[in-house]
Design goal:
It is elongated, with a radius of gyration of 29 Å. Helix 3 links the parallel strand 1 and strand 2 (about 80-90). The chain has a three-stranded parallel sheet. A three-stranded antiparallel sheet has the order 5-6-7, with no helix packed on it. The protein is built from 25 helices and twelve strands. Among the domains are: about 5-175 and about 245-295, HUPs (Rossmann fold, 3-Layer(aba) Sandwich); about 440-539, Arc Repressor Mutant, subunit A, CATH 1.10.10.350. It is mainly alpha-helical and about 550 residues long.
C-alpha cells in the first residue's frame, strides 16, 4: 500500500466533522440518478450565501471557513475537482436600516429598494450592497480563500438565471402549494414566488399576482392602493424570487452540491429542497450549525452589529485562533465576545503541539489539520498568551520593550524580530491588556489569612535559587494553600489573582513567577502586603 492510499484510509476513519461531511457528500454524488448527467464533468460545487443587508459579521466568515474545511477534506478523500462560490443575495429588498452605519436618515428613503440600488451610506461604493460585498471580499481575501464571488443582481440581470426562472414559472402553482401551508392567512392571500421590481418606484414588491403567462414569461400583478394591473417580464432583472424559492432556484441554476446553513434556517432548507425537487433538481448535501451569541447570549445580528467584527478579533487574536474558534463544536451555540480570544489562542498552540507528537491516525482529527489544509507548521512557544497578558498586567506595560526585558531573561533564545509569530503574540497581548483588561482592573487588599500565605511565599522565594523550576514554585503555592486550611484551593489562587493581578482569573502562578522573575515577584508581593497596588491603581 502506498503512503498516499494509506493516508486516505486514515481519512476514511476520521471522526472530525469536516471528514464526516465530506463522506456524506461523496455518497450523495455516487447515488445521483445517472439521468441528471455525469457530475464528474464539472467541479463539485460548494456554496455559501450572504445577505448584504448589513456589514458582514464574523459569523459570515465562519460559514465560509467551515465550508472550505469540508471542501478540503472532500478533495483529500476523492481527488475530485471542486469549486467554492460565495453568493451574495444583493438584489434582496432593503428592509431595515442597520444600527451600525452612518446617514441613517438618508437610508430610510430607500426602504424596499434592491440592496444594489440603495446608496452607500459610507460614500465609498456605488451602492450599499456593493459596499457590503466589498467588505466580505476584503476579509475573505485576508484569509487566502480560493473562491468565486457571485452577485444575485448580476445573475438576474445578465440572464444567467433565465432558464431556472422559466422553470419556476412553469411550476408556479406547485411551488405555491408547497409554501402556502406555512403562511398565515393574510400572507397567503398575496403570496407569490415572484417579487416584481416596480417600474415606477424601483421597490421590490410583495403583491398579489393575478395571472402568469408561460409563453411570454410574464406575470400580471395588482398594484397596491390603485388596484391597477401591471404586466411585467420575469426575466432581465425585472423580478426576483421570494427567499425560499430563490434558494432552490439558485441550487438548480448553479448546480450546487453542498451548502451549510444556520439552525434558524432548518425549515427553509426543507421547503427549498421540496421546491428544488419540483424544478427537477436534487438537494445539495447540507450541514446545520448552531448560531453564535453575543456576550449577553443574544443572537448576533448584522443590523444590530452586536457581534465581534473580524477586525476586532484580529486586533487581539491571531488568524489561527479565529479559525479554531470556528472549527470547534459547530453544532453547539457559543458566545462570541472578547474574553474567548486569549483562550482560543492558547488552545490553538496546544493543539499544534499535540499534532506533532500524534500518531498519523489521530492527526486528521486534530483541528490544526483542517486549519492548515492538512499541512500544519511546527512552532510552539514556551510562553503562553495568557502568561504574556499577565506579565503585561503586573508590569502595566505600555510598550513591547518592557515585556521583552522579562521574556529575554526567561527564554534567552527568544529574540525580538527573529520570529514573526511570537512577535505578533507580544503585540496582541499588549493590545488586549491595554484596551480590554486595564480599564477593568481592580485590586483588593489581602485578608489577614491571605497576608500570612503571601509572607510564607515571600520567605520561600527569598531562600530559593534563581534556577528553581516552575513545578517547584507551583507545588509550594499548593502546599501554602493547604497549610492555610483552604477547603477549596481554588479560593487561595483566586486570592492571589485578585490581590496580585487585580483580576478574577489568571495563569499557573508557578509559570508566571518564573517568567516575571524571583526578585521582581518578591517586590510585587511586598507591594501587595503594604496595600500599594490598591493605592496605585484604584485611586
Amino acid at each position: 500500500m502506498t503512503i498516499e492510499s494509506n493516508m486516505k484510509n486514515i481519512a476514511e476513519q476520521s471522526n472530525s466533522w469536516p471528514f464526516v461531511e465530506a463522506k456524506k457528500l461523496r455518497d450523495r454524488i455516487k447515488n445521483l440518478n445517472p439521468s441528471l448527467g455525469d457530475i464528474n464533468e464539472k467541479p463539485v460545487l460548494f456554496e455559501t450565501g450572504y445577505g448584504p443587508s448589513g456589514l458582514p459579521h464574523i459569523g459570515t466568515f465562519g460559514e465560509v471557513l467551515r465550508t472550505a474545511m469540508v471542501q478540503n477534506a472532500f478533495n483529500y478523500i476523492t481527488g475530485k475537482n471542486t469549486k467554492l462560490i460565495c453568493f451574495s443575495d444583493d438584489m434582496d429588498g432593503f428592509r431595515k436600516v442597520p444600527e451600525n452605519v452612518p446617514n441613517k436618515q438618508m437610508l430610510e428613503k430607500f426602504i424596499d429598494q434592491p440592496l444594489t440600488s440603495v446608496p452607500d451610506p459610507f460614500d465609498k461604493y456605488e451602492s450599499f450592497g456593493s459596499h457590503n460585498n466589498a467588505k466580505l471580499i476584503e476579509f475573505l481575501d485576508k484569509f487566502d480563500f480560493e473562491y468565486e464571488f457571485v452577485s444575485a443582481t448580476e445573475c438576474y440581470k445578465s440572464g444567467k438565471f433565465d432558464f431556472a426562472l422559466k422553470k419556476v414559472l412553469i411550476n408556479y402553482d406547485k411551488i405555491k402549494n408547497i409554501i402556502l401551508p406555512t403562511l398565515g392567512n393574510e400572507r397567503q392571500s398575496n403570496y407569490s414566488p415572484f417579487l416584481p421590481i416596480c417600474p415606477k418606484t424601483g421597490k421590490v414588491l410583495q403583491v398579489k399576482v393575478v395571472e402568469t403567462n408561460v409563453e411570454d414569461q410574464t406575470i400580471t400583478y395588482l398594484q397596491e392602493g390603485s388596484g391597477e394591473l401591471t404586466k411585467i417580464s420575469i426575466l432581465g432583472g425585472n423580478c426576483k424570487l421570494q427567499w425560499k424559492c430563490d434558494w432552490a432556484m439558485r441550487w438548480f441554476a448553479l448546480g450546487v452540491d453542498y451548502e451549510m446553513s444556520g439552525k434558524d434556517l432548518s425549515e427553509s432548507v426543507i421547503l427549498s429542497s421540496k421546491i428544488l425537487s419540483v424544478l427537477g433538481g436534487v438537494a445539495p448535501t447540507g450541514f446545520s450549525y448552531e448560531l453564535f451569541l453575543d456576550g449577553n447570549g443574544e443572537k448576533i445580528s448584522k443590523s444590530k452589529g452586536n457581534g465581534l467584527s473580524i477586525e476586532e478579533w484580529l486586533r487581539y487574536g491571531t488568524q489561527e485562533s479565529l479559525s479554531l474558534f470556528m472549527y470547534s463544536n459547530p453544532k453547539r451555540a457559543k458566545k462570541l465576545f472578547f474574553d474567548v480570544i486569549p483562550k482560543s489562542i492558547d488552545e490553538y498552540f496546544s493543539h499544534l503541539k499535540n499534532y506533532n507528537f500524534q500518531e498519523e491516525t489521530k492527526k486528521m482529527d486534530n483541528p490544526c489539520w483542517h486549519i492548515h489544509n492538512g499541512k500544519p507548521f511546527y512552532k510552539v512557544f514556551p510562553v503562553s498568551f495568557n502568561l504574556l497578558l499577565n506579565l503585561a498586567s503586573v508590569c502595566h506595560a505600555k510598550n513591547e520593550k518592557i515585556l521583552w526585558e522579562y521574556i529575554s531573561n526567561y527564554v534567552p533564545d527568544l529574540k525580538k524580530g527573529e520570529n514573526s509569530k511570537f512577535d505578533e503574540l507580544v503585540k496582541l497581548s499588549l493590545n488586549f491588556f491595554n484596551e480590554r483588561v486595564l480599564p477593568n482592573k481592580k485590586y483588593r487588599n489581602p485578608s489577614e489569612k491571605e497576608k500570612k500565605g503571601i509572607k510564607t511565599l515571600i520567605d520561600f522565594l527569598e531562600n530559593s535559587e534563581d534556577d528553581i523550576s516552575t513545578e517547584e514554585i507551583q507545588s509550594k503555592i499548593f502546599s501554602i494553600g493547604k497549610e492555610l486550611q483552604y477547603e477549596n484551593l481554588k479560593d487561595w489562587f483566586l486570592a492571589l489573582y485578585e490581590t496580585v493581578l487585580g483580576q478574577s482569573n489568571g495563569p499557573r502562578m508557578g509559570g508566571f513567577i518564573k517568567l516575571f522573575g524571583i526578585k521582581s515577584t518578591i517586590s510585587l508581593l511586598n507591594d501587595v502586603l503594604e496595600n500599594r497596588l490598591t493605592i496605585k491603581v484604584n485611586k
